[in-house]
Amino acid sequence: MRSICGLRRVRVALRLLPALALLQNQNAAEARSPGRIHSPVPATPEPSSPAAEVPEPASPRVLPEHRQFLSTLVRRTLADAAEGRERYKPSYVPKGLPSGESEVVVRLRNQGLLVVQGAGGPAPLITACGDAALTAHELLKLQDRAALARSPELLIEIEVVGKSVPLVLSGEQPALPKGTTLHQLLARIEPGIDGVIVQSPRDSSRVCPSEFFSANISVLEGLRSMLKTVGLSEADLDRAKLSLFRTNHWYEPRAGRPVIALRRGLVPVADEDVTPRALDAALDALAQHMMQRQQSSGLFSYEYDAVRDLYSAEPQFVSQAAATLALAAYAGTRHGDAPASAARKAISAQLRGLRDCPQSASSSFIATSDGENRLGVTALLSVALARHPDSAEYGPARRRLIDGMLWLQQPTGLFPTAFPPAHSLTGQDFFPGEAFFALAAHFADEPTQQVNDAFDRGIAWYRDHFRNRPSPAFVPWQAQAFARMAGQTRRQDYIDFTWELTDWAAQAVLTPEGCEFADLWGGVWGPYEEDAGASTAAFLETFCEAALLARKLGDREREIRYTALVRQSARFVLQLQVRTEELYFSSSPADALGGIRTSPVNNRIRIDACAHALTGWMRTRDALFPDE
Questions:
Q1: Sorting pLDDT into bands at 50, 70 and 90, what band is 627?
Q2: CA distances (Å), 229 to each of 37, 117, 197, 198, 202, in order?
Q3: Which residues contact 106 (CB under 8 A, 6 or more apart)?
Q4: pLDDT tens, residue by residue, 269-295
Q5: Which of 33, 223, 494, 517 could form a disulfide with 486 if both were Cys (CB 3.0 to 4.6 A apart)?
Q6: Are 302 and 606 in contact (CB under 8 A)?
Q7: How far apart are CA 575 and CA 590, in angstroms?
Q8: Residue 605 is inside which H or E element, if any?
Q9: Distance, CA of 402 to CA of 572 (rounded, Å)
Q10: pLDDT tens digits for 432-475?
Q11: 113, 106 in Cβ contact below 8 A?
């Protein structure tokens, strides 16, 4: 398994494509699809030396003081245009303002919704900003004259567009080979960093990096939409020319307010920001977000889309149990009645599905309304019962659920992944690990021979399963379960399996050696998101348990190594937590605040990602700051 970060080192015999012209206006109703720019097709570039190397696209250099100056320039230009005065001309120009010609995109937003956008250039940066502002003003007069009076209160978003470079797959030719697929192109595009230009013989389309994440559009979805715009299909990729570019992106919330510079729509978090105080603040904000999403039934909304202000209605019962566990654990370590009350409400909702196992008077499971009765629901809910401040009250129900999992396990060590009348062996990478985790948590409170035997039966089967079919999904729960049992039993095979799983996962952590983007360092690359994303929170739990086990065993070398992974991944997950300044595109920021976005460029917030982050940060405190 190797570390991947979407790095591109391409060679092609082309000059840079000239930048495309004006952005079409994108009103709030178009927020469901990526914004598009149409322009006349640029002249075909002439080939240069066959040995020429196309440079990586670069973000324009705009310093903080330049951003504030340009934001003021745009706002003054809009104000003068609204009053019918001559075009605003600044009385001074800051030192070091980039020279040469630039393209600028200006967007005006009202309570998160895009009101209008315009573009200017190529021209000197001051001129391009003024032109973009005037274009937006003229469109605003046509579309929403009432908004003209509100222009001082509108949020001004600015994106300075850098030079574009051709995208090629290999070799020295700009043309894409016959049979090229969109998935091949994705490996050359860094989500949230690269903007894309698609040209056909008769039209062109451009999407800025910010337009992908502010509309929750994946690069794949965006490419498909752009191809359709220029009259091509996926089968016509060899007729298209693609180019990449980067931007410098910021916004001014209101007149006179400090500007907010963004990268992938985020404000970066540094390693030194991982402190006990920061973790406590993050935990409290995340728990509040989760409690806010609890429904009258006691369950939680599974997903929230901060762009469209929509909650998902799907229940996702295993994720519900994970969220219940996380809040119960949080309630056990924090003062106040609200978390304990929310966890109790969620527990009560799920315990309504308590059913006896067939022909077993002492064993139970949690039946779910979809009839699937997944093992993971029973497993995670049993841990929630143990972590809740009122765990003694839930003791009898918890023991029945533990006995139900022991009843389900086969003599070979294999766990069927559903309780009768459902029957399933699928999901072996997920649910058995959750069962082992629940059994290990029970063993810590009430050591029994039955639980010890379940691990003894299971390790050979699941160790072989992992070695034959290694999967990222397998690692987090299994590693945590065997780490905890290893700490209690000191069995060498459990210890070795913990190291094997942790070291395998560590190879997927993005580092400076394998990734050029500092904001992604500490993230775990996986198949679930573009680059690294919220699944990192599950691996953070793994690294914490491994570090704590190494400390308990006196393995100093592993403790140092795993603790470094904890700090790196905790930083990355902290960066995924939604903060006020990152919600400039949202009409309902309070609903998203404190949640964990799916990835740096996907603003959907899933309850299971929030649950992993909550428990992961609590264990991070134990691993990094054991004395505080």
A1: confident
A2: 10, 19, 12, 9, 11
A3: 74, 117, 118, 119, 120, 129, 132, 133, 135, 136, 156, 157, 158
A4: 999 999 999 999 999 999 999 999 999
A5: 494
A6: yes
A7: 18
A8: strand 602-606
A9: 35
A10: 999 999 999 999 999 999 999 999 999 999 999 999 999 999 99
A11: no
